[in-house]
Amino acid sequence: MSERIAFIGGGNMASAIIGGLIKQGVLPQNIDVVEPSEEARNQLHSSFGITAQAQASAALAGAGLVVWAVKPQAFKEAALAAAPFTANALHLSVAAGINTDSIAAWLGSERLVRAMPNTPALVGKGISGLFARAGVSAEDQKRVEQVICTTGEFLWLDTEDKLDVVTALSGSGPAYVFYFMEAMTTAGTEMGLEREQAHKLAVATFAGASDLAQTSAESPQQLRQRVTSKGGTTAAAIASMEDNDVRALLIDAMYAARERAKKLGAEFGAA
Ligand SMILES: NC(=O)C1=CN([C@@H]2O[C@H](COP(=O)(O)OP(=O)(O)OC[C@H]3O[C@@H](n4cnc5c(N)ncnc54)[C@H](OP(=O)(O)O)[C@@H]3O)[C@@H](O)[C@H]2O)C=CC1
Ligand SMILES: O=C(O)[C@@H]1CCC=N1
């Protein structure tokens, strides 16, 4: 991968992808970043040795791939500022909600893939949903795969609206897992463990259960039943969750996330 890659926005998600690229041998001098925040530019320099620009300029013209990693609210302004310098590039957007009709209109380009990654990308264990606009060639799709696979797994979607579902599931999903970890750590601490011990147990439990679910031929439901001895402790915990409708609450939370993705698109997308 010797072609230049530009990032518009150099915050959390851009850093996660840049980290993956650098680990795979992409040289920092082949990565351009446009980032208005001085603090974020300093962070990019100390983490990766990248000197980011405060605003879009002709320096972007050499990029074969441009990754759009700005907040949905800032996308249109950023796109209109950078579009004059990125006419020949393949574009990859990771912004939640903003649909490719809007982005293609702002950029004047059909060579556009929309992705929804997640923050485990930081440790190479992310998963991304991808959707390619009709103007994207098989070769361009391969190029996007080469970049995204440095952050973990990926899957292609046949319709763009499914990306809002991916956003609600795996895009926001790490936050749901951390939320459970926080609650389990709090309860463990309240019941007498040291906070560090409770944290270690909570994190290891999620890691172990994930590995088991990934390698086992059994479904999560079957795996859950294997933990649940008749009349035992897990049965008491699951009964408490069912009484409190935790499953329905989680499902509602995902619908809320998908709804927000759609609203972001309606509010900050469109020409
Ligand atoms: N964080 C996550 O888990 C995920 C995020 N995403 C998507 O990634 C995108 C970025 O999110 P995230 O990295 O978390 O956000 P961050 O706020 O960490 O990063 C965005 C950066 O873009 C900068 N920025 C603002 N305006 C412009 C501009 N005109 N040109 C260039 N850069 C600009 C911001 O600067 P300043 O702070 O000064 O405004 C900020 O540093 C979002 O669209 C989000 O939906 C997708 C999947 C997961
Ligand atoms: O919260 C957000 O809007 C972004 C998109 C998915 C994860 N973070």
UniProtKB/TrEMBL annotation:
InterPro entries xref list: 6-PGluconate_DH-like_C_sf (IPR008927), NAD(P)-bd_dom_sf (IPR036291), P5C_Rdtase_cat_N (IPR028939), P5CR-like_CS (IPR053790), P5CR_dimer (IPR029036), Pyrroline-COOH_reductase (IPR000304)
- Residues given in the record as NADP(+) binding sites: 8-13, 69-72
Under the heading Gene3D superfamilies, the entry gives:
NAD(P)-binding Rossmann-like Domain (3.40.50.720), ProC C-terminal domain-like (1.10.3730.10)
GO CC field: cytoplasm
One example of the protein's molecular function in GO is:
pyrroline-5-carboxylate reductase activity
Which family does the record assign?
Belongs to the pyrroline-5-carboxylate reductase family.
Specify the Pyrroline-5-carboxylate reductase catalytic N-terminal domain's residue ranges: 4-96
Q: What is its main location?
A: cytoplasm
What is its subcellular localisation?
Answer: Cytoplasm
Domain of life according to the entry:
Bacteria
Q: What is this protein called?
A: Pyrroline-5-carboxylate reductase
A Pfam family matched in the record: F420_oxidored
Sorted alphabetically, the Gene Ontology BP terms of this entry are: L-proline biosynthetic process
Q: Which reaction equation describes what this protein catalyses?
A: L-proline + NAD(+) = (S)-1-pyrroline-5-carboxylate + NADH + 2 H(+); L-proline + NADP(+) = (S)-1-pyrroline-5-carboxylate + NADPH + 2 H(+)
The answer to whether keyword Oxidoreductase applies is yes
Known EC number = 1.5.1.2
Q: Annotated pathway, please?
A: Amino-acid biosynthesis; L-proline biosynthesis; L-proline from L-glutamate 5-semialdehyde: step 1/1
Tell me which residues make up the Pyrroline-5-carboxylate reductase dimerisation domain.
Answer: 160-264
User: What job does this protein perform?
Assistant: Catalyzes the reduction of 1-pyrroline-5-carboxylate (PCA) to L-proline.
